[in-house]
Amino acid sequence: MTDETRSHDPGSHPDLPPPASTVGVVGWVRQNLFATPLDVALTVLALYLVYLLVPPVIQWAFIDADWVGDTRDACSREGACWVYIRVWFKQLMYGRYPDGELWRINTAYVLLVAAAIPLFIPGFRWKQWIGLFLLIGYPIIAFFLFVGDTFGLEHVETPLWGGLFLTLVIALVGIVASLPIGVVLALGRRSKMPVVRSICVAFIELWRGVPLITVLFMSSVMFPLFMPEGVNFDKLLRALVGVMLFSAAYMAEVVRGGLQAIPKGQYEAAEALGLSFWKMMGLIVLPQALKLVIPGIVNTFIGLFKDTTLVLIIGLFDFLGMVQLAGTNPDWLGFAVEGYVFVAAGFWVFCFGMSRYSQHLEKKLHTGH
Amino acid sequence: MAVETKIAVAPAKPPVWNDPRYRALFFQVLVLGGVILLGAYLVGNTMANLERQGIASGFGFLETTAGFSISQTLVEYSEESSYGRAFLVGLLNTMLVSAIGIFFATILGFIIGVARLSRNWLISNLAAVYIEILRNIPLLLQIFFWYFAVLRNVPSPKNSHSLFDSFFLNIRGLYSPAPVFEAGFWLIPAALVAGIVGIVVLARWAHARQERTGEQFPVFWTSLGILIGLPLLAAVVTGFPLSWNYPELKGFNFVGGMVVIPELVALALALSTYTASFIAEIVRAGITAVSHGQTEAAYSLGLRPGPTLRLVVIPQALRVIIPPLTSQYLNLMKNSSLAAAIAYPDIVLVFAGTVLMQTGQAVEIISITMAVYLTLSLLISAFMNWYNKKMALVER
Q1: How far apart are CA B206 and CA B220, in angstroms?
Q2: ipTM of predicted complex
């Protein structure tokens, strides 16, 4: 290196590179990890925390884990025993649904995915019809597929349903059924008719003020009392009704948020055109309002999806319930952690994916300034 | 001359069935009638069913002897106590775990929310990982994890984990020393209360003086001194009238001290860590909602970073934070009902579970339970609304 100083004519000084300590990896590290003494302390602390947590978890879940085998003897017990998940996988996915009939569930899954894919293709032309099919046609097909007893299909009783399949059934039924009820309730809450409004407010606030568990308890012990003698409700159906009422109240509040965001001019313009109330709502207001609250609806769905785990308290074996059940099997005691980690990963993938999707939608639909 | 004839043209009256007012009336009567009919139908069915099954109705059962024991009781309760007493025990347990959960969730949530905004890349990403993992896993699963996978795997009383030989963690719960109050102890809390009153007076005086003269008074440090000094003085004067009753291993279990049952530990832990992830996001959104110009304006006025945060940023951020924070508190309180899944004796387990099984009076018990949660919800939101109003922007 030369230490000689060079002189330049005014204005002809060449551009010097920025100091090495402010660019590249070094600069980034200095700026983002070691900017101040406090930052240094925090970084060291955080690194120590990461060191404390991450290597043991990786060691347990991957390096020391046992993957192959069919019995608990295949597990060395030093790391995670994923054999446990392998053995119970079918039950965790489908519950006790008969082996020979599993194709029915799988067919419904494939149909759902195949029908839903076009909705995500921008510019696809028959989106409304597909949406309509998913909301009305698909549930009917799925119902006959799952329950059977017609078209030569064997009848499968609901106590045999379980696992992730049951979780999806409850969550999807809850969301699909709660949307129309929620829209009606939201319209009622904003109605000018005092009787209608107070009934809707009371209904919404009642269900929003109590925990889902009490709603499920209510649906499992009180619904049978409400019905005339001889009418017997299926346990799953009772839970579904409870979940529907509960999520409809939350959905109503989401939709109300959308309705409030529509400028008054839209209502007035629709009225000036001579549209009736239902035409105004159906053609002008609701399409705009519902589009606005799609992220809110997705968030409600995430909440509902997580809440479906509560049905295990009234004796239905959903995804989490099935892993609890597997944990009490005398041949497989002591693998609670593996089971919970697997179920947690399953829920996490669904919920994280949906929340990312809702954030993406929020950005896409944010057409204002 | 043409005769002008004036004909008053009244607007044509719409027929009754097209008049919006009558329509509204008709529609409301229809809805009300429908609701009443449905209600009557359900009530009628219920009465018939109750009669057929021979279930008593009314609230008389609250006086009956319960005959079951409860693992955690904040008030006196035994098997001879009444169902009403059991209800009270369950209600207090629900309120206890909600209060603990709200307290820790708020602290943890604020810390993580601020960490999420840190300029330190590692800290901010660790906070993001915490938030994304915790809030996307069902709460019930987290409660199960803490209870069955963690707290069920701690050792038996003989080999408990111990801290300073006074705190012990084992499968029966968390044992800690219990305070024993001796004569003259009342002076210490009295001194504390006097100190708090003194601080309030001092703060008002300091504020008024600053408004008048611009002179500041070190309120924080003086208050801290008063808060610690006065009770300490009282303790010295009365000769430390407080001793600790340490838990001791006698045979197979600990005797003495206080015990926190593992169900409470698991539930409080899961509730506060889960809710903290939501609170962190709320705090982050609240702080980012305060525009950067506010901070810059405060700096250009010569405020230092501390007062800027305390006097400019936080008051504005709180306005954004409080309403969603309220709904998180409500959620936490409602989620505490998941206690039933791990047998923590809250109101759902004790009242809507055991008492319902024993008496069979579903309608009364479920209604009371729902009413309790509704009341608690209303109380929390009333308090937070009051606080919100206090913090809200006063516009001219």
Answers
A1: 11
A2: 0.85
